[in-house]
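pls design
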C-alpha cells in the first residue's frame, strides 16, 4: 500500500443502505422502478443490467432500495462467496429495488464507484468476509460490522480513475482470452463426442443391434445397513459413492470411504469388478466409467448400477458408447426432472447399440483411448490457460490496491 494513501473504513466513505424514503420523495407509488432479484445480479459483470419493472407500491415494503450509481453486493451464502456484485445503472426513473440480501453502498465524493466495485471484487475480501459470516447453515450472511469497518484505500480521485481505466482495459482483454479458451475447451469436447457418435451411428459391416440388457446383466448397488456410518479409516472393503465418480470415467480416491468386514459380508453380492461398467442412477445421474483394478471387488452404492458383461463384450467399448448423444437420449438424461430422480434399471436394459465382433470392439476402444488421451491433453491445456487468466486477474487487483499500477 502506498504510504500516502489514506485508509478509511467503508462506513466512513460510503452511505450503506440508503433510506427508502428517497424513492417515495422522488416518484409516486404508481410509477415504475427497476426490480432486480438476486439471480439478475451478475458475477464478473461490472454494470447491473435491469430487465424487470414494477410499480413502487409493490416493492417499497420488504425489498432493498438503491439508485443509479450505487454498488450492490450479495451478503448471503453462497452468493457472497461467488462474487455477486455490480453497479446499478440505467434504472427506470433512476430507482431500483431488489433482494433483501443486498448490501447497498453509495460512495461519497472521495470514492469512485468503479474503484469500490473492483475493491469489493477481490477474492481476499470475499475470503475474509466468509470467515466472518454468521447464521444458520445455508443462510449465513456476512457480518454488518465486518462490512462497515472494512478498510479501503482512498487515493486521490484522479488516481482511482487512472487505475480503474487500466483494470478496465486489462480485464476486457482477459475476458476475451478466457472466452476463447472456454470455446476451445468446449470445441475439443464436442469434437470427441461427435466422433464417437459418428462411429456408433454409422456402424460397420457385421455390426448387430443389441440392447444393454442382452449383452450384460444390469444390477443395482446396495446401501449400507440403516444407521451405519461409513469409515474413513481404510479397510479391505472400499464403498464407492456417486461422489467418487468423475466426469472422466474413473474413480476419485482422495476421499474414499470403507465398510467393515461384517457390513461387507451383508452386502457382498453388490460389489463391482474392473471388468464391469458403472452408471450412476440417482443423485448426479448418468456418470459412467470403469473402476481401476486396485478397487476390484469394491462395494457399490445403491445410487449406481453395474453392467456385468457377457462373454465377447468389451466394457471399454460400451463405456465409450455411454458418452454419445444416442445413449443420453435413450436414457432420457436430457429430460429428467426432480420428479424423476432415479434412472430405472429397466430403461437402461432397453437401450440399443450396435455391437461388432470382439476384435473390432477392442480395436475401436484402443483408437478411442488414443483420441481420448489427446482430447484430455487439449482440455488440460485450455483449463490451465483459464486458471492462469484467473490468477492474472487476482494479481492485477492486488497490484491496483497496493499502489503498484
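designed seq:
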Amino acid at each position: 500500500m502506498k504510504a500516502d494513501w489514506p485508509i478509511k473504513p467503508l462506513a466512513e466513505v460510503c452511505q450503506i443502505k440508503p433510506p427508502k424514503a428517497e424513492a417515495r420523495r422522488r416518484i409516486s407509488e404508481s410509477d415504475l422502478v427497476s426490480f432486480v432479484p438476486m439471480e439478475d445480479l451478475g458475477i464478473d459483470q461490472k454494470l447491473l443490467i435491469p430487465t424487470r419493472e414494477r410499480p413502487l407500491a409493490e416493492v417499497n415494503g420488504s425489498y432493498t432500495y438503491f439508485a443509479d450509481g450505487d454498488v450492490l453486493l450479495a451478503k448471503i451464502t453462497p452468493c457472497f462467496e461467488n462474487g455477486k456484485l455490480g453497479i446499478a445503472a440505467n434504472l427506470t426513473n433512476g430507482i431500483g429495488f431488489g433482494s433483501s440480501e443486498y448490501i447497498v453502498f453509495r460512495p461519497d465524493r472521495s470514492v469512485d464507484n468503479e474503484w469500490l466495485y473492483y475493491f469489493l471484487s477481490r477474492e481476499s475480501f470475499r475470503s475474509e468476509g466468509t470467515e466472518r459470516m454468521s447464521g444458520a447453515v445455508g443462510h449465513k450472511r456476512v457480518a454488518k460490522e465486518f462490512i462497515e469497518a472494512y478498510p479501503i484505500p482512498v487515493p486521490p480521485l484522479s488516481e482511482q480513475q487512472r487505475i480503474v481505466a487500466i483494470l478496465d482495459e486489462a480485464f476486457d482483454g482477459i475476458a476475451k482470452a478466457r472466452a476463447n479458451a472456454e470455446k476451445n475447451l468446449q470445441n475439443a469436447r464436442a469434437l470427441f463426442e461427435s466422433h464417437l457418435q459418428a462411429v456408433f451411428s454409422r456402424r460397420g459391416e457385421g455390426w448387430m443391434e443389441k440392447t444393454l440388457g442382452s449383452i450384460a446383466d444390469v444390477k443395482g448397488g446396495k446401501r449400507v445397513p440403516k444407521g451405519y456410518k461409513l469409515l474413513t479409516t481404510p479397510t479391505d472393503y472400499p464403498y464407492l459413492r456417486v461422489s467418487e465418480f468423475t466426469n472422466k470415467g474413473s474413480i476419485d480416491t482422495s476421499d474414499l470411504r470403507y465398510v467393515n468386514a461384517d457390513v461387507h459380508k451383508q452386502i457382498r453380492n453388490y460389489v463391482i469388478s474392473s471388468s464391469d461398467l458403472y452408471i450412476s442412477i440417482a443423485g448426479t445421474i448418468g456418470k459412467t466409467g470403469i473402476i481401476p483394478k486396485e478397487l476390484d471387488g469394491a462395494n457399490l452404492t445403491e445410487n449406481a448400477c453395474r453392467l456385468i458383461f457377457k462373454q465377447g463384450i468389451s466394457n471399454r467399448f460400451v463405456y465409450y458408447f455411454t458418452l454419445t448423444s444416442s445413449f443420453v437420449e435413450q436414457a432420457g438424461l436430457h429430460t429428467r426432472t426432480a420428479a424423476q430422480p432415479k434412472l430405472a434399471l429397466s430403461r437402461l436394459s432397453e437401450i440399443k447399440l450396435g455391437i461388432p465382433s470382439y476384435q473390432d470392439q477392442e480395436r475401436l476402444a484402443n483408437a478411442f483411448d488414443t483420441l481420448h488421451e489427446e482430447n484430455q491433453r487439449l482440455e488440460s491445456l485450455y483449463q490451465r490457460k483459464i486458471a492462469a487468466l484467473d490468477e492474472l486477474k487476482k494479481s492485477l487487483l492486488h497490484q491496483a490496491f497496493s499502489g503498484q499500477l
